[in-house]
Structures are given as C-alpha cells and as structure tokens.
Amino acid sequence: MNTDLYHVSVYRFNPEVDKKPYMKNYQVKASDCKGVMVLDLLEAIKQHHDPTLSFRRSCGEGVCGSDGMNINGKNGLACITPLSDLEGKVIKLRPLLSFPVVRDLIVDLSQFYKQYESVQPYLQNDTMPAKENVQSYEERKVLDGLYECILCACCTSSCPSSWWNMDKFLGPSALLWACRFIMDSRDTETMARLEDLQGLYRLFRCRGVGMCRDVCPKGLNPTQAIHDIREKMLRDAV
Amino acid sequence: MPIQQQSFDVIIVGGGGAGLRAALQLSQANKRVAVISKVFPTRSHTVSAQGGINAALGNTDGRDDWRWHMYDTIVGSDYLGDQDAIEYMCQHAPEAVYELEHMGMPFSRNQQGKIYQRAFGGQTQDFGGDLVHRTCAAADRTGHALLHTLYQQNIKSKTIFFSEWYAVDLIQDEQQNVTGVLAIDIASGTLGVFSAQATVLATGGAGQIFYTTTNAYTNTGDGLGMVLRANLPLQDMEMWQFHPTGVLGAGVLITEAARGEGGYLINNKNERYMERYAPHLKDLSCRDVVSRCSMIEIREGRGVGSEGDHVLLKLDHLDAKVLNEKLPGIVALAKTFAGVDPSKEPIPVTPTCHYMMGGIPTDRFGQVVKLNAQGEDECVRGLYAAGECASVSVHGANRLGANSLLDIVVFGRSVGVAIISSLEQNKQQASPITEAQIEAASQRILRLRKTQEGEQVAHLRTVMQKIMQEHFGVFRTEEVMAEGLVQLKAVYQRVGHTKLSDTSQTFNTELIEALELENLILVAMASAELALARQESRGAHARIDFPNRDDENWFKHSLYYIDGKQGQRPVNMRPSMVDPFPLKERKY
Ligand SMILES: Cc1cc2nc3c(=O)[nH]c(=O)nc-3n(C[C@H](O)[C@H](O)[C@H](O)COP(=O)(O)OP(=O)(O)OC[C@H]3O[C@@H](n4cnc5c(N)ncnc54)[C@H](O)[C@@H]3O)c2cc1C
Ligand code: FES
Q1: Do A179 and A165 belong together in one domain?
Q2: Which residues of A touch B148 (CB under 8 A)?
Q3: Which residues of B touch A186 (CB under 8 A)?
Q4: Is residue B65 domain-resident?
Q5: Residues B269-319: pLDDT tens digits?
Q6: Set B118, B141, B287, B538: catalytic member
Q7: CATH code at B469?
Q8: Are residues A12 and A86 part of one domain?
Q9: ipTM, 2 decimals?
C-alpha cells in the first residue's frame, strides 16, 4: 500500500453509550502519522480525528505485548506491523477475538492471565548455591524459543480449541510457559508439572491446528512446545 | 459516591523492575503489600531493556572487582554520583545477579555453564585499564527476562496487584508526611484511596518529554509530578542521557551490546571516527562521549544521508552466529524499523533521548529526602522511591550502560529491607486519611471532568515534545535554551486548560493521557530550568558556552521545586569500605 491517505475501519464499542459494536471509518493523512506502523495510525486517529478511540500501548517496539489486535483478519502487534505490508483498500482493525471487549480495541484478559498463573510459571528449585546454578550452554539453548513470550495473547485468541474451552484448555501461551519451565534444567519439579497437564483438557485439547505459530509476532512456536511436552510425557512415563 | 479506602502495610506505585523487586522483598516477609501499576506489570518499560546488567563476576575475563566497577561508575557519572550509594550498588551487584539467577532468570551461558558476560561502554579493569566483560546478559532481551522473572516470583509469593490502576497524587497529612495515594481504576473509572505506612514510588522514567525517544509511551514521569505537587524537590533534572544508537526517525534503541559484541560507528567517509576521539575505549567510551562525537561528525558535515543527519552502526562484519545468538532482537528491530538487514548493511542511527539520570532525591536506603530550614537532608516520612524515577544518585551526570537494571534490583531490594525494619520499629498506624486530604488529591481529576472548553491533550503533548527536542538536546547554549524555556512556559499555562473529548468512565485513555501530560510538562520545566542554570559541562549536560567542568562552582546536585525555586545538595564523598575517589579529568 503506497498512499498519502489511509482508509481505516476501526471496531468501536463503548458499553456506556453503544448498544452494540460498530465499525467506524477514518481517512488518515500519512503525514499525520509519526511513523510507519499500524500503531502510528491509531495514534494519528486519536490525535487528529477522535480522542475517544481507546487502545492499549506501551513499548512501541513489540516487546511489551500491549497492543495485540486483529489487523485485516490476522492477529498481530500494531506497533510492529508496517502499514506498507497491509493489502487491500481498507485497513480493518478489530479487538482480539474470543475475549470480552472492554471498550473499542481493548479486551479483558483476566481469563488469559489465570491460565498463565495456573501453570506455576516460576522456577522451582530450593537449592541455593553460593554463586549461579550451573547450566550448560546446551541446556540453556533449549530455552531459546520458549522464554521470549510477551503475553500479548495473539496466539490464544486465534486458537479454535481455546475459543470453545477457554475455561478448561490452557491455550498456547500458557502451554508455552509450561514448556519453558519443564525444559529448564534447573527446575526440580518436572514430573509434577507433567502430571499437572494430564487429563482431557488442560493440554490435550490442542488439535495441532497451528494458528498460534502462524500469528505469533515473536516467531515462537507453541504448537511445537505442546508437541514436545507430549513427547516428554510419553518418554518419562516409560 | 464516597471514595473507597483500602489499607496496606506498603503501597508500591509501579510494577517495573524496581517496584517488583521491592514488592518481592516485602511479600516474602509477609507484609501486606499492594502494587499499583498503570499497565499490567510485564508491560512496564523494564521489559524493553536489551543489553544487560552489570556485576563484577569475572565470568569472561577470570578477574573483576566491584571496586573497579565502582570507579568506572563514578568516573562515568562525571563525579556527580554519590559515592556511598555507588559503593553499595557495585558491592551488592554480584549477589543481586545471583539472586535473579536463582529466581529462574534465563541468562545466556558461557562454555563453562556460567552467566554470559559481555563488554559494555566505560567498563574497565584495574581502575581505567583494559576493557572488561562485566555485563550479564540474556541475549539482547535482558529486561524481558528480568521483568518476567520478577513478576513470576511475585505470583509465587502472592503479592497483591492493582493492574491498570493509575496513581493520581500522593496523600499527605498536616506535617507533609505521606500516608497513601489516590488512584483511579482505569477500566471502570472508579477512584480509590490506598493508605499505608510506607509508599514507594517506582514509576520509571519520563523520556516522553522528548519528541524522539527510546522510551515507552508510558514513561511520563508520573511519580515526579506527584512529588513536585507534594512540594518536594526533584534533583539533577538537567541530566538526560542521549543514547548514541537510536534508529533514525523511529527512535527505537539498538543496544550498546551491538558495539560490545564488536560493532562500530562510521561516518560518511566510512571512517571509524571513535578511534580518533577516544583511542583507548573507542566505540565503548561512555554514552555522553560517543553521542557528542556523533553530533560533531554530523555538524561538521560528515553525517550520512541526503540530510547528513545521522551516522551508521556497522555490524555486517560480525559472525552470523554472534548476530543470531547474541543480538537476535536487534536483527529483528533493525529489519522492522530501519528496513535493513544488519548482516548485510549498516544501521542508520542518531543520538536519541534515552534515560533520566535525575529524579526524586533519596538517601542510600531509598527514603525520599528534602532539605530542612537549615539546608540539611531530612527524610520525608512514609515516602520512598526506587528505580529510574529516583535519584539515589548512582548515575550522577551520566549513567553507564547496564547500570540501570542493576540500580532497580539493588535499590528495589534495599527499599524493601529498609521498610521492613521501619515497620518493625514503628508499629503505630499512620494517621487516618481525612476527606479534605482526599479532596486535595482529587483536584486534577475533578477539574478535567468539569472543563467544557479547552485544548486537546495529544496536540499539546506534541508541541511540548518538539520544544524539548529542539532546545534541550545533546549540545546546549544559553540562547537556545532560554528561548525554549519561554515557549515551554506558555505550554505549561495551556496544559492547565486541557479539556477532554472523552467523558466516559470506562477505560478513558484520554483522561489518563491528560493526567500524564500534567506530569510531563512539570518534568520538562524542571529539566529546562536546571539545564539553563547549570553553567558548566558535566556528563550528559554539554554546554557550548561553558565547555568545561567547573568543580569549584558546580560540583553539587541541583534541586528544583514546583514554584520554580532552586536549591543544591552536596555530592556524597563518603563511601564506607574504600577511600573516596577524588575528582579527575575524564579520559577514554
Ligand atoms: C530501550 C531501552 C533499553 C534499555 N536497556 C537497558 C539495559 O540493557 N541495561 C540497563 O541497565 N538499563 C537499560 N535501560 C534502562 C532501564 O531499562 C530502565 O531504566 C529501567 O528498566 C527502569 O525500571 P523502573 O522499574 O524504574 O521503571 P519501569 O520499568 O519504567 O516501570 C515503571 C512502572 O511504573 C508504573 N507507573 C508509572 N506511572 C504510574 C502511575 N501514575 N500509576 C500507576 N503506575 C504507574 C508503570 O506501570 C510501570 O509498572 C534501557 C532502557 C530503554 C529505554
Ligand atoms: S506497544 Fe509494546 S508490544 Fe506493541
């Protein structure tokens, strides 16, 4: 898209005044955008068209996970999605699917955070060496691709298994975190962690659809992590 | 509707590294601690930190010493850092880093399975000798690794969080002691009063006063505004660090680790110019030095591009393995924000506002100090500060890279320790908060909800940011700053008359941004006034009209009050374990 004017259609909903959500169109001058990302477009709308538009943002560089949203049908972070990458005449911005909308592009992530907390996302190891725990270069390398999650919820929001079983299935993000601690050579509770993921739902509702991997703005692969946990369950059970 | 009151042992405003480290100390000691954060904690700015955290572990070089680290920090600060606090920080650095590792922080590892340490600017062996590898890193995502680990530990220790609550103002009793804060639940618009025997401000930086900055949108200096409105001073606000390698235009940071891993800066003649200015440490000289050199290159016509407005950071000579393993985040950022693949082309960069060395003055234990009638330090009862919002001061006039993550964990912890012992000594409850005190703290919200006619928030913010950008950059002169100050004062007046288009209660981000702007403009005024007043060049404060450091007249901290009054405090030269380091000329 190469244009001086962006045509944008944004999901609007303010529970205090709107009976139901609606899409609102804006035409935004490229020169009103401070940068070249979708977030710059949202800031331009807020500054030059409509200060009531509500969305979250913090870091502006794809590391805090505040501005996960649905951009032209695909989940991503507004701050690192270049406007030039978007196809079609109109840019469509919607809140993350499957979470309750608080207002406009802001969703309620309480359930998502609960899932995260339920996997005990902290290292369990009671030994206190005088210096650091030794962890070999190779052992640490296993964590690459597992620890970088920014809790933006883009994956969980695009996962069909999560849509239907939000309360029982942990969803890709929480499972990636579970995997990060299961695979950490320093953690002493591996067996208990694996045990905790047994049953029909918590982990096993994953159908391997892979949407999570396709949308992750950090290039992480929860599908693989879930697969690796399953393998480990099988191996360690024998 | 009456405003609901809740009472805790301790309130922490801020869920970044400093706030979370303090919270952990307190909740592990079974104190009732509430963390109020305007963003979900892991979205705090600490998450953006890239390069690492300093501690003299000697894992790479086989030798290091916290006293060398102390020396480097003092010299780096251009002697404006307080030597008692710097000593404390450097001495406790190894312990702080090991503690993070024990909590599960996924540090990168060397071949011996120890924490990986890289080179960073201004870090030497033997008091100014060869470069040392002192910066402990988790690839180039150290802040992410650190912040998530601290948040996770707080989940484990059951800290109480008020996420997406915005602290509006401090509540004070008749003696100016702090007894709590007034905050607003952003999601519902409900006001709440939080009372406690101790309140900790850990609200982070304020880089949003500049138009181009590496800082998050949320770095708006809220704690600093709250302190000024409580008639307490801010310290050394003229000291703003410009990082040499912000991506041109976007302002996104390319960590100093890029140079630590072997990258270097070049001008339009392909010359590695830092060799000329600083033959010893070259590209790994302190940030104030490198940023000034880059600006000189640009001003003297050796800048790159059709405007000649930037320089280049060259990384394409580095091994692909180094780029992919040590700097993966940087490779991605460069592609996204500069459109270049750093393994093939250099990255266009320019000095960019990055870090606030000044802040809320505290003693070594994080207790906020003010000057009494005799001009001596006096603690403000009930109020503590830690992290980037505080001025302990370990960074003085120029911070060493990777010393801030260290600052936030060391002093986050020590604030917690200090509060625990003060709670134990002093069992009496804080005096109850009165309606009148709550009303005093609610004034700003009441005004905003009432005002029908006035100016728009986002527009005024941009105007302020551009003034700061143009008048208070890397090089400063009386004339340019004075003109900037006049313009700022006009904006200050206008900020008092902002009006909201958004009148709803639910997640009203315009209301929050209006409150933030009132803090930003105060921070900008403090920075501008003190920059104009300090007639010397020291650290990041470089005056063309006063090019030298003037120890006779300016070897002191400067203070600023909301009414424009200024004051001074002596620099602490009393470390307890070693002799003080005497003032010398800085050379790299
Ligand atoms: C891009 C970048 C890279 C960096 N890299 C490094 C590095 O490699 N090494 C290093 O040492 N330093 C680095 N720094 C500096 C360092 O990251 C910061 O100085 C440090 O993280 C600040 O931590 P903090 O806890 O003080 O504040 P923050 O992490 O900014 O947290 C502030 C907290 O206060 C809360 N808050 C603020 N105002 C309010 C309010 N009114 N009400 C409620 N809550 C509020 C916020 O929600 C947030 O939780 C970097 C900085 C940047 C910009
Ligand atoms: S604003 Fe932080 S991820 Fe986009």
Answers
A1: yes
A2: 147
A3: 104
A4: yes
A5: 999 999 999 999 999 999 999 999 999 999 999 999 999 999 999 999 999
A6: B287
A7: 1.20.58.100
A8: yes
A9: 0.97
